[in-house]
Amino acid sequence: MALALAKASHHRFLLAAGLRFSSSAPAPSSPVPPPPSPAQSSAEQLRSGPVAASLAAERAIREGSRTDWRRQEIQEIYDSPLLDLLFHGAQVHRHAHNFREVQQCTLLSIKTGGCSEDCAYCPQSSRYSTGVKGQKLLSEDVVLDAARKAKDAGSTRFCMGAAWRDTVGRNTNFNQILDYVKQISRGMGMEVCCTLGMLEEKHAQALKEAGLTAYNHNLDTSREYYPNVITTRSYDERLKTLEIVRDAGISVCSGKLSLFLPRGIIGLGEQVEDRIGLLHTLSTLPQHPESVPINALVAVKGTPLENQKPVEIWEMVRMIATARICMPKAMVRLSAGRVKFSQPEQALCFMAGANSIFTGEKLLTTPNNSFSEDQQMFQLLGLIPKPPSFGIEIQRDQKCGCAQQNSGDLLQQAV
Length: 415
Known about the structure:
Elements: H1 2-16, H2 38-47, H3 49-63, H4 71-78, H5 82-96, E1 101-111, H6 140-152, E2 157-162, H7 171-187, E3 191-195, H8 201-210, E4 214-216, H9 235-247, E5 251-256, E6 258-260, E7 263-266, H10 272-283, E8 291-296, H11 313-326, E9 331-334, H12 343-352, E10 356-358, E11 362-363, E12 366-367, H13 371-381, E13 384-385, E14 394-396, E15 403-405
Parallel strand pairs: 1-2, 1-10, 1-13, 2-3, 3-4, 4-5, 5-7, 7-8, 8-9, 9-10
Antiparallel strand pairs: 5-6, 11-12, 14-15
Helix pairs in contact: 3-4, 3-5, 4-10, 5-11, 5-12, 6-7, 7-8, 11-12
């Protein structure tokens, strides 16, 4: 009797564990569900975190860039186990780019402070007491000298920022900036970008004709969270500027994410779904940004966000790897806030898919990594400077987006 009870108890234990076994006594029967259809299996795989990044990376490698991303897809990629996400971001990056090449950019504030906008993170807003004084446009000598120093230090792109809402009614200053663009792009052989606020079509066309490579205009965060950060211009106004820039034939930079140039900023108090929303907006634009700067908030005393918690490296890695999978061909740029991450932490970002940095002691008004620090990091990690893209004929395979070398071009190949 005791033996029979023991066998029955063991039998129930095995059933609870989901194990099948043969026995002289028949096991209690239970209905067996039909096998899932291929479509059901695929859908269930996409819903399961551990494989979302893998499947998305495989498709990016197989098919190249796409603009039909669903927000839920991006959420599942972002939520993948961190090491899986990093690995698959690296896979896509190595397929679409020379993984050792990193673009070096330098950013100069050519008109600082006194801005009428209320961006909650920005020390240049006239609404906040941050110690940043309003200044006039820098002179030609100062700007061109800064560009020469940046080029001598290895930068191939020189970016100029003006603390303005827009370019309306600023003809004198705008014409001076056009001259800066011409002299730096044509005279020094550097790529040039600007961030001057909202643009009219005529100004975008004039910048294009002057030789501008890219225009930065930030989306900052998701459409839903945006009113918590900025109230003086709308999300749609920002998107309209990106459209004007793109229609003029200028590359877009955006993130904080912003395009290139919009950028995105993380650490604004947003939730994870807001980061996903920003990535979704950028990756479903008619054309992906040329550059996607990813910024970690630099909390400045006197701004409404002065007490925000610092962004952790793991958040940066997730954003970078997800951006790389969703926008394979974009330059994913480590921007503001990089100075607080160690070289080993930055190495994780490069592994995840970052391939561009802002270098030089200052980004507009906030601290940044020096030229010498970055040169030492390049040597340590085996990184090589990416040459400027203009003037070099680059064929891009329409399927995978891999850069291929034409005879006579100057692209360096990884060893």
